[in-house]
Fold this protein.
Amino acid sequence: MNNSQIEPEEAVAALADIDHMQTVAGGISEESRWTKVAVALIAGGLVATTMAENSGTYVAILLAALVGVLSSERQRTGTSARSHSHTRSGRIALFGVILLAVALYAGGIVLRDLAGWSWGPLLAGAVLAATLIGVTWGTASEDQ
Amino acid sequence: MIESRFDPVIHAPARLQLCALLVPLQDAEFSILATELEVSDSVLSKHIKQLAEAGYLKPVKRKSGGRQRTWVSLTTKGRKAFAGHVAELQRLAGMG
């Protein structure tokens, strides 16, 4: 087939078809809200437990739980969404989450070691989890 | 920089839809694709084979829950060809 055989109307229809299928793909690969909550809690748990003594076991359990949650979601939807780290906005969001986690980690250590607040790490983990839940819940609401 | 190029392998309606469905995904299971594209398993297999022969798709068989399932993903070559085809369609439609 040569592109000289394609009329502009056919090109427009093909582009509309492409848009529709990409919307469908977004819908079928969308994680459930509970998966998003579970991932947010695990991320918060990782920030909180890495500050604990003998954190290795907790971190291993949380990482195993993360793998379990993601694997179960993949089986449920029959798809896995492509990472957004190849787009500019995706890289900015990822950098923002990493920066927030590092800041909360440092804040948790300061609270615990300098201010003597033993619940500092827990607070840091809870803030990260709450932020991630808020962002993903808000995004899901906007999408709907 | 995306090179605008009409691709006859991709342009067939079912293959165009299949590629468009796979672009935002890392991979997808065969039965999900058949359901979403509303085609029979044999028709989908034929299109996957044609795209795989062009180097655009990579089907992988994995065992899950005691059953063999086929997962399909676009290759880097397939993503580039699809992006080029979309750019050409946009040009033809007067959008590019």
User: Anything to note?
Assistant: Chain B touches chain A through 29 residues (CB under 8 Å). The mean pLDDT of chain B is 92. The first strand of chain B starts at residue 25 and ends at 29. Residues 76-92 of chain B form the longest helix (17 residues).
